[in-house]
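Researcher: Re-running this chain for the archive, since the previous output was lost when a drive failed. Same request as before.
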Amino acid sequence: MNNINISEIRKCLNELSDIKLQRRLWLSDGADGVDVSSFAEAVEQLFTDTGLAGLLQDGATGFEDETDAAFSALQLALRRVDARGGPARTIDDPAMTEVRAIAKYLLKLLPNPA
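Model: Regenerated structure tokens:
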């Protein structure tokens, strides 16, 4: 397997899979040092910051085919999310239901880091 940061990937998938976490992070204004994130950040961290997008494109993740296929399905589902109306509308976008389901599925497929 490549030198992929599974912990970071799992963290991003957790954020994309959990509506309560999305509401806490994506609707936060950062006051009093509260954590802040966004849909765009979660997607960017998952696919770009970890290098996962390039590895998927090259077929070089080192994951099982089922896992790679699920990541590809997640990429497609993420493209269907309308993130232009602000964080609350993004969270409530019907396309996020599929995103959350695929992200949860991927969390089950990925190994837990030691």
